[in-house]
Please model this.
Amino acid sequence: MKLPKELTTVTPLSKYLALFLLIALPFIGFYLGFKYQEVFDLSNPTPTPTPLAIPTVDPSVTANWKIYKNERMGISFNYPSEWYLFADIADSVQIISTDPEEGGNWAGFNMQTIPHRTLFTDETFISILENNFLGHREKNELIPIEVDGMTAYKLEPDAIPENLSMTEIFLYEGSNIYKIKLIEDVGFPERNEKQINTQILSTFRFTNENNVEAACLADAKMCPDGKTWVVRQGPNCEFAPCPE
Model:
């Protein structure tokens, strides 16, 4: 069958139309694919991991344990009466399972408070951990756990130097980072240090949120008078009022 001449004749318009489609179709396909991915992501959100709860400990286990409190850090926890309070300063405490005078590997429970200059959110906290505390480790190695009803992040040991296995746990309150180390001497499994450290962690409590002072951004604002500067202050880190 012979087609009409107007259907077989290449015109300038048809050339431009073909060139336009040749250029535009890949972009249209990319755009439609991108929008589809957006819709797919919204309908299939990435699930947020549920923090692992610290195993519940029978109160009879810790009934006769010593109680440690640190008002500056605003924390408390229980530890076995036969363990030793090795270091106790304003922002750090270490409990060990063996007599320090006997030497050898010192395993146990260590906690440190590290102040930061601004208040944390979950996102900024993870970023600080990634940039300052993880070293060669990746943030996806952080395991969310629950400590005193709050989300903390556990980093399991990836190496065991000198028979010591150390698990690190990070959490924050206000502008403070709380870094916990659970240290086990794997050369003496009969000491049950790993289990006891977990039991100590289960007793950990924040004793008074007001003890944790919130830091504010160190910036200032010029008042309308053009000569007075005010800084942020108070629990909400708001700028101080300008003079009347």
About this structure: Residues 210-214 have pLDDT under 50 and may be disordered.
